[in-house]
# Entry
Amino acid sequence: MARTNLRPTAIIPLGDCAAYIEFSEKLDLEVNAVVQRLALAVHGRAAPWIRDVVPALGGLALHFDPDHPGAFGDALHAAANLIADCLKEGLPEADDVLRTVEVPVCYEAQYAPDIEEVAKKAGLSVEEVARRHAAGEYRVLMIGFAPGHAYMGGLDAKLAVPRRATPRARVPAGSVAIANEQTVVYPYAISGGWSVIGRTPLKVFDAARQEPSLFAPGDRVRFRAISGEEFLKLAQ
Amino acid sequence: MSIRVLRPGLLTTLQDHGRHGLQHVGLCPGGAMDPMALSLANALVGNPRDEAALEITVIGPELAFEEDTLVAVCGAEFQGGFPHNRPVLAPAGSRFNVGRAARGARAYVAVAGGFAVDPVLGSRSTYLPGAFGGFQGRALRHGDVLPLRDPAAAGRFAQLKKTRDGTVKWSAPPLTLPDREPVLIHVLEGQHYGSFDGNAQRMFLDTVWRIAPDSNRMGFRLAGPALVRAKDDEILSGPTALGTVQVPANGAPIALMADHQTTGGYPRIAEIASADVARLAQLAPGGTVHFARCDLGIAAELRHHMSERLEAALRGIAWNYGQ
# Structure
């Protein structure tokens, strides 16, 4: 258990069945790392009146049943107490609770429509873009937008290109894309403004799996470059 | 042992009370847009509250019953002469032709014993954006055959108190249908309410908003004046909830409904009181709504009032089943 001096900057009702516990209005990777551990600590308490614990970039949401006896008639107050208790007790160490997920990615041209453009903007070769992307150590900062859609921080600063001016109409599922200082893997075929530099054969979200989402909040993520041949083998 | 779909209607999907505990991986609970009406429909055919029923939207389906089936329709009133809000024994070979919604937008067709579809991630709700759950992860189509889990459950009709001609005359009260428009919806201040200038705040509360045509189970788009923020700074993406009202750069608010995204980067001007979300869900595109501010105390009163009315209706139904 590790102590942290971090305290919520605001507790904001998200309607009458949820609250947002805010720690920062700006993206701060250190704050986010604490938020992830706090979310696991809250989850671990299994409070019967809490329905969902959703860590986000600068804080976490608690979704609850405001009329459950566990909320003592004042869920916002109970939520504040729950967070304070977890912080007072100390949060689990990141190494003990957070997983590492390895994601095979093929960076070859047929799966990477934007890699050349990114290379040009960054002043690097296409191979160097792939190498740098695969060499990075990433962390899932938040899952949102679509089921399993993980926003990951830790992108090489050289690769931090802005979003594309015109979004691609349809990006296939598994596409690995970058924008600003983050990387994502699209769980479904969607339209997106991020630059697509590769694709994974893994299913990012599969409702038929026991654990439907490949990623969980806080996960450390590594990408491993694979050949087109290996992509097809793994995709089967 | 099944129901045949002769005409699917505008959007007919299986829905229960949703899948919980997965918002941290980006999956919203989903489920019935009007959970009150779903609970009543289930109770009327003797099902547990959380059984899945057909959510029908604005234009209803035409269904053919292969066996005697105990059915109840609750929520919006649809044309077609089918009795609403009461248990009905649909005889084998009969058809149920639902027309347009005359009042409200969504109704629930529950059958005794429920539909024989497997739960996905703990729920039989159809999640259309992910194409899973419900009946093959999609809205019903012409020619679909919906299997029933327990056709013998139609026998529950025998337990019901009936009039001398053998029919049920009593009906459950509608809980969520609009009496008049614009529908009054209570809202709490959203996290970014203060970042809108006084004029935009006033406009949000003074305008009669119209539900735009491109509204769906994910969100209702509201047509009216554009709401402009006092300062145009970027907002860090954060969690959203059922009933969050967010305002994209074009100034047209979006109220997040059952299949909403779990996080969003648009400023959140308001949060709809949970008791009023189902009432909003009973508006079709073209319907009108206006907002009134409330606090957590009033939101709790509204919630308790709605839940008391639901419990009273459920007791009435139980009495008619002789319980």
User: Anything to note?
Assistant: Chain A has two domains: 10-95, 99-235. The CA atoms of residues 203 and 209 of chain A lie 10 Å apart. The first helix of chain A runs from residue 29 to 45.
